[in-house]
Amino acid sequence: MEYMRRVALAGTELARAQVTTIRLKLLKIGTVILRNTHRIRLLFSSAYPHQQLFATMMIRLNSA
After folding, report:
1. Using CB atoms within 10 A as the burial measure, which of 35, 50, 52, 64 is most buried?
2. Rounded to an integer, what distance in angstroms lies between the CA atom of residue 29 and that of residue 42?
3. Other C-beta atoms within 10 Å of 54: how many?
4. Measured over all CA atoms, what is the biggest interatomic distance in the chain, rounded to whole angstroms?
C-alpha cells in the first residue's frame, strides 16, 4: 500500500490518504471479472465515481 501511495497515487487527491481510505475508494469496488486463457477483463459500473483515478493508478503501476 505504501508503494501504491508513493508511486501510483502521487499528485492525486489520495496521495496522502490513509490506507483504509485507499482501500474503500479504489480497491473495494464491485466489478465483473471475465477471465480466459489470454487475458483478464474488469468491467466497472459506469456509475463508479473514481474511474479516472483508478485508471491512472493502474497505468502508473504497470509502467513502474
Report:
1. 50
2. 11
3. 19
4. 38
